[in-house]
Design goal:
Helices cover 85% and strands 0% of the residues. The chain is mainly alpha-helical and 65 residues long.
Length: 65
Amino acid sequence: MDDCQAQISDLQERVAILKARIPLWIDVSSIAITLLLLWLALSQISIFFHGWSFFTGQDLLARWR
């Protein structure tokens, strides 16, 4: 019975450590996902502008250059 109690105590300690680390991992992963989605959005905008200039022959960014 003492062996089982020691295993339970060890498991409780490991769960407490894991609970302390979870918020950090959530923050890091949310920042990484946000950066990935921003990169994908910018690449889609770039593809749109390149496709438009290829299809119509007009440069959409000419007035800003």
